[in-house]
## 1
Amino acid sequence: MKSGGRGFQWGVVLSLALLGFSRSVGWALNKGLSFPLLSSYTESAFVKGTILAIEGLIGLFIPVLLGYYSDTLRSRHGRRRPFIMVGGLMAGVAVLMIYTGYAMGVPLWGFALTLGFFYLSMHVYTAQYRALMPDTVESGHRGKASGVITLLEWAGNLFLFGLAGYLMALAVAETGESEGIKALAQTPYLKIPFIVTAAFLIGAALFVYFIIREPEAPEIEENESLWGYLKSIVENRDFLKFYAAQTLWWMSFEFIAIFLYGILAYILHGSASEENIKAVTSLGLYLMALFNVTVLLGALPGGIIYDRLGRRLSIIVGGVIFALPQIWGWFIHTEAEITIALGIAGIGWGILMAASYPVIGDLLTRFEREAFTGRYYGFFEATRSLPVLLAGTIGGAIVQLAGENYRVLFPIGALLVLLAMPMVWFMKNLEVEGTRGGTE
């Protein structure tokens, strides 16, 4: 199906960017605080990684299923917005439950369950949020839209990491405790990031539900069965190559994101004990904020490059820039070297994210399957969630087999990214006329 008159609409794009900002605040809360809070329960990298990998297990199935059913939903509220409202409300409540559970001293299994409910809530509307962009922006403008949305998404990460770092500094000053997360837990400041995150998640979901008006749902003449849709992905080599490549580069990212505190503690202090992890928590938040700043620097030009210079080239440039600092990561020993490496990697990641988001929408346009954005972006999210599952469990196991050497995750992550690049290069229908690197 051809898109009809859905150009670049700033109001729609900024509304989606606001939703992306709020979701990123939620995911950043998870990335920034879950690992150190879990360290209060256990020092095992495998146990912590496995609990955090619940996100990947849930994300492997829920976006695929709900994305599929949102394609065929016919209601006066639209196809995507009902999922967005329900998911946002659930996610906001889940965030408050995480704080309440930790503050009440629930056992490890109880804390893990609250994290699991949060992951479920966030994934209730993951595919629908992703699908709204190609639903409302036509091909040729999606790179620019992706750049703006990616910019705000990673600004959400930066906001949360900055807020948490600031609160830790206040807590350290008040308590005299040198370990940031321990100081934060001793003050009322710990609740603030959770309350703010809940407000953003609920507020943005309601805003999109009441403000955005979805375009009229296209008629689906021959709807695929769930099995038929999954089968069609495997049969179409371009979709299969892209999904496989995305799985690899997200697994590389999650190796670092999940185990960053362990990596910092190992490199700077020689081991990832509970004390050392808590000692580097403030530094970790600072480095996450820095990474997100450089992601912002790469995101907007990444979207422009995607539209103007070519799909393959923009993805490969971003991937290589992201991989090179990880190769260097095996040799770094100082805080300054870590800072430089993550800063460079962030620029590459920003380009890669902005350039990869519109690919599925453009492929669906190419194959005249634009009615199916929900299900294909559901699978898109599954291939972003599978790496969380794999990185959490496999990464934790690798670290333990390497004698708790967290540094080993750097070169393995670089290898995964570089393996993904040929898959993108050999996609046959990625380019459009008028871009460099096209095949037609």
## 2
Amino acid sequence: MAKLPGWQGLGAAGDSASASASASASEGGLKAWLARWRGGSEAAMTLPVRDGIHIRDSQPSRAHGFDLMLVWIVVCLLCLGLVMVYSASIALPDNPKFARYSATHFFSRHILAIVIGLGVASVVTLVPLRLWERLTPVLVIAAFVLLVVVLIPGVGKGVNGARRWLPLGIMNFQPSELAKFAMAMYAASYMVRKMDLRENFLRAVTPMLVALGFMGMLLLAEPDMGAFMVIAAIAIGVLFLGGVNMRMFALVLAVLLGAFVLMITFSEFRRERIFAYLNPWDEKYAQGKAYQLTHSLIAFGRGEWFGQGLGNSVEKLHYLPEAHTDFVLAVIGEELGFVGVLMVIAAFFWLTRKCFLIGRQAIALDRVFAGLYAQGIGIWMGGQAFINIGVNLGALPTKGLTLPLISFGGSAILMNLIALAVVLRVDLENRQMMRGGRS
């Protein structure tokens, strides 16, 4: 059989080299094609392992320039919140306290808060993390100033004995929401600056405790113990994730628990709340301190597995106070049942998990500030949701905390969306670095 021209001089070695080169070229082409299909570069497929974490494996999603699942979870929670705020507040004008409001008053204001929040969040995603890191001291100072201003008579707005809001016309702004955001930034920045001092308790932890203590005094003066608990959880959680010595972490935790015990011991109001929580059906508490809790439990009991149907809650008809804010989950339980509540819990679990995955990925890319910040926001969203759900179910003492992204509240929705927009920015910069770009 005649050989094709050009094959005559090829020996066994030549055939082997050609086959090897062909296989190498094919493998390179396959890698390049797979990288383009995944939305990255060929270099992104061969990223190293850092601290035991393969960077590509820690990426939450590969098919988009951002974590689409995170966005969808937030959108779904916002939509559910919009529906449930309308359902829970539609009967409020029948109450003389809200007689001057229309049936859609809280619904329309909630829509406005969401629109403003999404608009600001879309701008925030364009701000680089390095700028946020430089702005951290400004945010902390602004939070402290507003926490002081809200306590000034005639400036801060009081509701039900608490002075927590600054009236801004289109919405009432709650400085404690800014304080949560600022604390997540400050704790992440603090750990980056003090990374070499993690084994020295006085130099590593004391400044953080001083800042946290001062902020706690201002919050307890409002009073807003629930917000202080969330802020303390963010600070202590970031310290732990940042690698503070376990003995130091345990000592800080013991100090905070001791402070909470002292606050309950020397405050008759808080002490009565604890007793009411322990025995809500006692006649002494059922019509007093445990009134909200008992009606919340009744709402969950009526909901059973699949609920009474959307809009069919009875407890929202002036039996359950703050049904559209702190106890909106009870209305969800009554109207959508156990299945609806389980879906809400699953959504917050997934949201928290996404924040931690994005933070873990950033740390693997040596972006410690961005990573600790994202995980701090995960602690905020997951921790506050955990407390609110626990309060609604009677597993925790009653606290004035909203359910993130769902409960009515302009400044809460605004700051939740801003905080999550920065997390999305962390994810965008992570992906940019993995494609060979600069953050």
## 3
Amino acid sequence: MTAKSEHPYPLTPEVFAALEVTKRGCDELLVEVDWIQKLARSQATGVPLRIKLGLDPTAPDIHLGHTVVLNKLRQLQDLGHTVIFLIGDFTSMIGDPSGRNATRPPLTAEAIAINAQTYYQQASMMLDPAKTEVRYNSEWCDPLGARGMIQLAAKYTVAQMLERDDFTKRYRSGIPISVHEFLYPLMQGYDSVALKSDLEIGGTDQKFNLLVGRELQREFDQEPQCILTMPLLVGLDGVEKMSKSKGNYIGISEPASDMFGKLMSISDDLMWDYYTLLSFRPMAEIDLMKQEVAAGRNPRDCKVMLGQEIVSRFHSEAAAEKALEDFNHRAKGGIPEDIPEISLEGAPMGIANFLKVAGLSPSTSEANRNIEQNGVKIDGVTIADKQLKIEAGTYVVQVGKRRFAKVTLG
């Protein structure tokens, strides 16, 4: 009698290649041995694994930080697995408390519907629609009703909830925690039960919520999902995570030249994180580039390649080439082609208000900061006087390295 194998499915080289793809750039894979077995089973049986990503459409636009998990989903789709793009229309009405020190205001159903549509349209630029299920968690959350919600809540304790860092900090600091906030991780976990997910992906700030799904699947006698957490992409400032509220983001719907210019502005060190998390190039190729830079190659060459790859993905190769031409032209002090033309009335106009009304600065205070930093040029001349009055006429105005406009003031 032979001993029972620890792995009932063969661990082939393809399984370990798939494991390598899964782990590329990830922060944590829980539990790796379980994931290996799921991959082996899938390969042996031909049944795709179910990969879940839950998104609350709290904002309609996607930036490159959001694409870190979307890229990972695409990599797993390319291995043959099914992605479940779960839109949290029910959980959005609760509001995710992850990483917050205050209750997040819930969204209206109308705002959720609009945001969700825009979000998926943008995500489809990265995902394979043929291998993507789009689901809304109101499908199974609404029918639960009050009785079902109470029965679900009985499967998780308050002590377990308070193991979560942000809840613990708020509790100890005397900052209110509403009871409905405990329902958020519970409902997110129930999504995994409803979808029978094999793997759930999220940012590192979502780890607690993902673990709740694993525990609830056990409670419902399902095979527990594995968990893959991805790092939060650092923004253009090189310090904080990429965020619209911090103004350090690159939106995937931005003009090609703006996107390319922002990518060229990141530090040489940060570039390698962007390569790992955003590029589709093999890691062996990226590692070789690192060695070449260490040996003296100009890192700008590598940054250009990264910028071209990302811009091509969201625009086209032709747009990426044009963005590079514009960038090089600006770097030599030139003015890009096709700059917007703006007509204003109200001459003479103070310089700060002029920049604000022309849409070149978000506010007069920001315009004054741009002037103080020698970041404003009119017809190629740097402006230093914050009290300057702009007379009637037509001017080529530049703010910073990337904002240009031809402004006619009447």
